[in-house]
Automatic annotation (TrEMBL):
The keyword ATP-binding applies. This is asparagine synthase (glutamine-hydrolyzing). InterPro entries: Asn_synth_AEB, Asn_synthase, ASN_synthetase/amidase, AsnB_N, GATase_2_dom, Ntn_hydrolases_N, Rossmann-like_a/b/a_fold. It catalyses: L-aspartate + L-glutamine + ATP + H2O = L-asparagine + L-glutamate + AMP + diphosphate + H(+). GO terms for molecular function: asparagine synthase (glutamine-hydrolyzing) activity.
Length: 618
């Protein structure tokens, strides 16, 4: 994995001194190497920067990578991510007469662009975000993978564009501005992840499955992939077999690395299936046991109390799966001091660039990845299985499904995504009008859903629900996973986001997705032979969150300090009386993440205002 950043200016040219700080902000994403390329001429039109995390072809995959002919540079590429089918593509390109200098997937993309132009992206299987400069045409392409696993942002300027893997790269350039307007604040709070919205005014995110072309004629955007509505013709047994065949191929491809690799293990169906598949394939290759990691909290298992989202603690299931597949397992156990550590919380904000933290669940994920990075460079994750196979509880909540809004919003009355803004100042709440913003976003998303004819009303609605998750909700989680992992230079791969699997399961009727009366029926059936019965039958449990009352007490103390500090920048946005009421409310029993979400939000917004000093246009 890597970080990219750069600029194109087709009028005044680019300045190396202005681009170098952009590249430096990506050092966390690429700690192994750095490079900066400028096009020729007294006023270079393009600058392309790269920070590298070496995973494949460690000695030969340096970037920016150029392709030359007759002493002339034709193409220059900066690439972040992995292409899992690069070996097949390389053989095809060699059959067409192309020669290669390295064994990297980056060079395959570069040579493939020379051969097929932008159509090469339709041949790539992987997670990627890259920029390619065509010297002959003076055109820049910004390209993102189909599911948006890897991020890429762009910021138009009068005669070109600034771009980077994260907003911080773009904000490091003097021609950008960190302005948060009402739409930006709405996007921060609404939990809808509008495709292409970059939070800061003027900042755009390359939409998953799209490329952006920048040239003298202007900027144009093209979607090269999106979910299609196709008739499903296979019966249950064939469907289960097809899912397993895809998973076998996907995990096999994603085990390719020239550096240490591991699996993230929570003891749930998703991560256990990936860990077990990886263990099976590594044994077949005589490559030793799979290495796995989990996160836990001091005293969590002993004092666990069921909450609205979690029925059981992860620990017993993690240990059972690790023993079942003979994994080399490590549990990373965190204390309240770890979770409230100012440096760790600051690192989360620096990784996010905006105050969208979900509190201890972000901090613990960051600390987990930081600990893993000392022993592995690549990790396989079970992320996105719930969106693909229909795993969340609200998929199976008739009221949430029938609600005329995003299902996770309807379920949020008792779940983690609460739209309440009661902690904000009344006039700001009125200007935000979040319900209208969410409704408009919902209508836009529904208008995109592809349908097949001749299905029941329930099947039609469940196709909509699945589409909303695969294009909106999953982006929230993928963004979190990428930022927390790359803050420590750890590459996290997401097998369930393979576009072949996503497209196939999307078109599987809901009756097949739930054929055993449970969530994720297809995944459970496809991997049952690999897993202990207890894990096969375990009810969905989200990423863990501490229940220690001491953690919430520390949050309340921190917010109380802010309320008392008349110079705290967040005071102009919040309802001080409402916060005092929240701070003074009785604290009985275990602390629940949903109950303390407003406290986490206030602390993160204040820290963001202090660090980023954005202009608020609210």
């Amino acid at each position: 994995m890597c970080g990219i950043a750069g600029a194109v200016d087709l009028a005044r040219g680019v300045d190396r001194a202005e681009v170098e700080p952009m590249v430096e902000t990506m050092s966390c994403r690429g700690p192994d190497d750095a490079g900066l390329w400028l096009s020729e001429g007294e006023r270079p039109r393009a600058a392309m920067g790269h920070r590298r995390l070496a995973v494949v072809d460690v000695p030969g995959g340096r970037q920016p990578m150029t392709l030359e002919h007759g002493g002339e540079t034709l193409l220059t590429l900066v690439f972040s991510g992995e292409v899992y089918n690069f070996r097949e593509l390389r053989r095809e390109l060699e059959g067409r007469g192309h020669a290669f200098r390295t064994s990297s997937d980056t060079e395959v993309v570069l040579v493939g662009w020379l051969e097929w132009g932008s159509e090469v992206v339709e041949r790539l299987n992987g997670m990627f975000a890259f920029a390619i400069w065509d010297t002959r045409r003076e055109e820049l392409f910004l390209v993102r993978d189909r599911m948006g696993v890897k991020p890429l942002y762009w910021y138009p300027t009068p005669e070109g564009v600034l771009y980077g893997s994260e907003p911080k790269a773009i904000l490091a350039h003097p021609r950008s501005e960190a302005v948060l307007d009402l739409d930006g604040m709405r996007e921060l709070l609404a939990h809808v992840k509008t495709p292409g919205h970059g939070i800061y005014r003027g900042l755009h995110e390359v939409r998953p499955g799209s490329w952006v072309r920048v040239r003298r004629e202007g900027v144009d955007v093209h979607r090269y992939w999106q979910l299609e509505a196709l008739e499903h013709t296979e019966d249950r047994d064939a469907t289960v077999a097809h899912v397993r065949e895809l998973l076998d191929d996907i995990v096999d491809r994603q085990l390719i690395a020239d550096v240490p690799l591991c699996a993230l293990l929570s003891g749930g169906l998703d991560s256990s299936a990936i860990t077990a598949l990886a263990a099976q394939k590594l044994r077949a290759q005589d490559a030793g046991p799979v290495r796995s990691f989990s996160v836990d909290f001091v005293g969590y298992e002993d004092s666990f109390s069921a909450d609205p989202m979690r029925d059981t603690p992860d620990g017993p299931y993690v240990r059972e799966l690790a023993e079942h597949v003979a994994a080399d397992h490590s549990a990373i156990t965190l204390s309240n001091d770890d979770l409230t550590d100012p440096d760790a919380r600051a690192a989360v904000l620096a990784a996010r660039d905006v105050p969208v933290s979900i509190g201890d669940m972000d901090t613990s994920l960051y600390l987990l990845f930081k600990a893993i990075r000392g022993r592995s460079t690549v990790a396989l994750s079970g992320e996105s299985a719930d969106e693909v196979f229909g795993g969340y509880r609200w998929f199976h909540d008739a009221d949430a499904v029938a609600a005329d809004t995003f299902p996770w919003m309807a379920a949020a009355r008792t779940g983690p995504l609460d739209l309440s803004t009661s902690h904000f100042a009344p006039d700001l709440r009125e200007r935000l009008d979040l319900p209208d913003y969410v409704d408009a976003s919902y209508r836009d998303a529904l208008a995109e859903v592809p349908h097949v004819d001749g299905v029941s009303a329930q099947e039609r609605r469940m196709r909509e629900v699945c589409y909303l998750h695969l294009t909106r909700f999953v982006q929230i989680l993928l963004d979190r996973k990428d930022r927390m992992s790359m803050a420590s230079g750890l590459e996290v791969r997401v097998p369930f986001c393979d576009h072949r699997l996503v497209q196939y399961v999307f078109n599987t009727p809901w009756a097949l997705k739930t054929f055993d009366g449970r969530e994720k029926s297809l995944l459970r059936a496809a991997t049952r032979d690999l897993l202990p019965a207890s894990i096969v039958d375990r009810v969905k449990s989200p990423y863990p969150s501490t229940q220690d009352p001491g953690y919430e007490k520390a949050l309340r103390t921190s917010v109380a300090d802010l309320v008392s500090d008349r110079d705290a920048p967040v005071r102009e946005l919040v309802d001080v009386d409402a916060l005092r009421t929240a701070i003074d409310a009785p604290q009985d029993g275990p602390s629940i993440d949903t109950d303390r979400a407003k406290l986490e939000s206030v602390l993160q917004i204040d820290a963001w205002l202090r660090r980023y000093r954005p202009t608020l246009a609210l």
